[in-house]
Each structure stands twice: as structure tokens, then as C-alpha cells.
């Protein structure tokens, strides 16, 4: 039940857990914002204006504190004296410290609080804070647009990348892990960019602005305030280095767990039928435990940043309060300036704390970004020719000329294979599992590129054609049916979106879909769920055959297309195929030899080589590999042995 299918599935190993290269990945993620550089510039301007206003406000608010304190102290002094006279009187009374403090204040002895001046100051502060909030809101609005556009482009790039990836990638990587990169990881990137850019930008600007204001008020106190910054940076760096590897493991394990779940749910019936629920549950528990451990360590270690920074910030606050109080008592600073400085010191610590807290989110987001970038950096299929060739006629003449191909460099599969399929002929490909039958048609479709030799379609080397042109000439019906959520009409028309109603019904009639559609309540408008659960397996196969017929290909590929239908339906499909073989080459991969008796050419493959080819009667007469296959199915082991 592996989620990986194809010959390269065995080559796939466990998810990579290499350490995250944080710096380059973070810069590459930020580089995704470049198309919106003008909007980013506006965000910077708005953020700077908001921070400047927020930084200036405490200084002005400190003036309000001075007005209150001056009024309280002035009320205690005798009226009618000047400030100098009041200071001299205090010194004469032995209150030198109080006299020093009063001398540095703007007091009028005998006068209380100037509420008019206080009101004007508070009004100014209110307007400043409102303006800062407005700028901050507009900045957040613009940034939200930028981030969502960036993530939209990233999703589009991933979607386009998936269509450019070779089939080899999907054969060697679990689908659940790929889905996790496209959904979980991109969502995590969106959350990270949205939350961190705004906070990080505001925090950095706040640190710069607050530091400038603190230096303006008191260089000595500013030196005390920044004394703990190197310790904060050191603590954050050390903790971040320890948590990085756990965030990488967390998202890698998330992808592996998704692959496990997708695999188990897809094969739920098989798991139940063989009674392997316990083993599947044990595998889930193991992956779940790995995710728990990596997630716990990532969050726990990174969560140590905030407590460490808060502790250092509290030490900083105590130092500023003590030194500031001593300077007020000595008269070298006003109480309002100390109050403003203490507020600045708390504000100075807050953005540092926010930056420390964001390291948690940033590491998680960059770990996801690295997984998405790894997908975007995967090798793509070779590009189409600049001036592609195109066969003039659509006859369906296919030639294999000394074709060699191998999935692994050290393991040959197809060597020097030559084969010709004439227009209108049915070519059946038979052989044991792993013989290279499906590989042969994959090479025709250019899902894989040949290592040497060439394949010609109507005389044109298919490598000189565009893939779209090549595949538009080929209709393919696989053993594993695929229907999307939509009506039966829409599913049939998938191969030819511009088809008329008459053409759709004709294809349905030729593939015998029309026989069961009329028994459904809504007919062709019956909605099929994404898993096709409301139609039988045989009916799903007939719909996919109708889809291929509607596209009117010059080449028809049926890869075990009748394996899911009953014997009667199988005969109907054979009749429909025969009617459509006129001027159309058909490649039929079949294990049930009853479906290919009337083939014009039967090719028997073993280990990538054609060991026999001919008609049904010719191959039976040779009593070779085909004869043994035929006997194993229709004569029985006992008679075959005789």
C-alpha cells in the first residue's frame, strides 16, 4: 500500500532531516516580496511614522508628570516667594536635597497644579496615540495585501512546478508528503510572514527610536538600559540554534505522517480485509510519537527565549529605577524625565521580547519555506523544443527504433527495443509483472525520456514535438480509474471540453455508458463524488473509456482497462474498441489474454526485451512464452504440465 508507485518507489528513502540553513532560506522567503516593493516601501513609511509618534508620546507625557509634580511641590512652598528665595530658605532649614530638587523644577511657590496646561498636554498625547494607531492600522492593511499576494504567487508557482515535474518525481515521493508541502507548509509560511514582518519591522524601528530618546534624556541611564541587550541577543542566538533542527524535524515528520495517513485511508478496505489495523495503528503511533517529540522539543526550547529576555528586562528595570531615583534626588533630572525613561526602558525591553518570541514562529515558518523551496528546486522535465515539429497527418503510425531505457543507472530495463505499430492496428503487450509493459507506453507518452534510440509518431521523432501536441493525439485509459467531483457529463467531456451534447452522448453510447446512465435518477447530470463512490468499479471504467473515445485520439492506450469490468461488459468494451480502431493505433496492455485474441500484433515482453511477437494463432503455434502464458490461464497448471 505504498503511497509511492512506479519502478523508482524502492529508491525513495526516509524524509530528509538535514539541518536548516536559516539565513539563506529566510532571505529567499523575504525575496518573494520583491514584486510588491512599492507597497513594502509604503509599509516602511507608515511603520516609521507610527513608531516615531509612539516614541515621542512618553516624552510629552513626562511633561504632564512634571506639571502635576511641580503643582504638588509648589503648593507646599510659601506663597509670595520666588523659586530662588524658596530654595535659599530650604537650604537655611537644612533641607539641601529637597532644595536641589526644587531648583531643577519649574515651580511657582504657593501655586498648585496648572490643569489648563495639563489638559493641553494630555490632549496632544491623545492625538499622537490616535495618529500612531491609524498609521499602524493602515500599515497592517497594506501589509496584509502584500502577504496574501505573495502567498498566492507562491501557491501558483508550486502548482505550475508540479505540472513541470517529471513522472519520476511522483513515483519516488509519497503523495501525502507532497500534499503537506502544498497545504500545511504554505499555510504555515503565510502565518509566519503575516505575523512576523509587521511585528519585526515595528520592533526594530521601536528599538532604534526608543534608544535615540533615551540617549537624548540621559546618556548615563541609556548606558544602563542597554547593558543587558548583548546578553539578550546571546541568549536568543544560543536557544535558536538548538531549536532550529527540531523545527525542521517537526515539519518533515508532519509530511511523513500525512503520507502515512493518506496511504492508510486510501487502502482502508484492504487494511480491513487483511486485518492489519493493528500494524497500521502501530506505524501511525510511531510517526505520531516522532511528531510529538520533535514538536515538543521545538516549542519547549524556543519557548525559553521569552523567560530569559523577561528576566534580563526586569534586571534592567530595577537598575534604571534605582539610578533614576538617585538622579532625581540630586536634582540632575526631573521626575517627568525619569518617569518617561522608565517607560522607555519597558518599551525598549518589549520589542526585544517580541523579537525573541518571534524566533519561535520564524524558525517554524522558515523550516516550512525550506521544504517548499526544495520542491521548487526539483529538476524539471526537459523543456519542449523552441520550434516543435508536428506530424502533418494523424495516422497513428508508431515506430520504436533501438530504444533503451532504465529507471536506475545500474539496472537496465529496456535494451535496443524495436517495434512498429501500423495505423489502425491493435498491438497487445503481454508479459509477466515487471517486464516493462507499462514502461513502454510511458515512453510513448513521454512521461519518461528514452536513454537512447528514438520513437517516431507518423514519421516524426516525438522528442521534437511539444508534449501537449503529442499527448493531444493519444487517449489513455488506465487500470486505476480517476473521476473528479462533477457530473457524468463533465467527466466524459474532460477529454474534450468543447464537445457538443451529441458528441458526448455518442461517446457514451459507443462505450456503453449510455446503457446504465438512464437508470440513474439524474441521468448525465448525476453528480459523482471525488472517489466515484456512487457508481460501480466497472461503470467508472466505462466512463473513463468514454472520456478517451470523445477526445478522438489517433493512438489509443488501454492499460489493463478491462480489469475492473465483468465478463459481459468486457465483451461490450471489446466491441466498442473494435469499432474505434479504424485509422487508430491501439496499444493494449493485458494480463487477461481473452481480451487480445483479435489483436493484429501481440508483443510478448520479458525483462524489458521483446521475446516474441505475432498474432494469437502464430504465437500459439510457436509453443513459446505466449503459449505458456495462455496455457497458464486457460488450460490450467495440470494440463499445461502435461
Question: Could you write a compact summary of the structure shown?
Answer:
By secondary structure, the chain is of the alpha/beta class.
Which secondary structure elements does this structure contain, and how are they paired or packed?
Layout: H1 22-31, H2 37-76, H3 83-92, H4 96-103, H5 115-164, H6 167-172, H7 175-217, H8 219-226, H9 229-266, H10 268-273, H11 277-302, H12 305-329, H13 335-376, E1 398-405, E2 414-421, E3 426-430, H14 437-444, E4 452-457, E5 460-461, H15 467-472, E6 474-477, E7 486-487, H16 488-492, H17 501-510, H18 514-517, E8 527-528, H19 537-550, E9 555-559, H20 567-580, E10 585-589, E11 601-606, E12 609-614, H21 616-622, H22 625-634, H23 637-641
Parallel strand pairs: 3-10, 3-11, 6-9, 9-10
Antiparallel strand pairs: 1-2, 1-4, 4-5, 7-8, 11-12
Helix pairs in contact: 1-13, 2-5, 2-7, 2-13, 3-4, 5-7, 7-8, 7-9, 7-13, 8-12, 9-11, 9-12, 9-13, 12-13, 17-19, 21-22
Domain ABC transmembrane type-1: 42-364
Keywords: ATP-binding, Membrane, Nucleotide-binding, Transmembrane, Transmembrane helix, Transport
Function: ABC transporter involved in fatty acid import. Transmembrane domains (TMD) form a pore in the membrane and the ATP-binding domain (NBD) is responsible for energy generation.
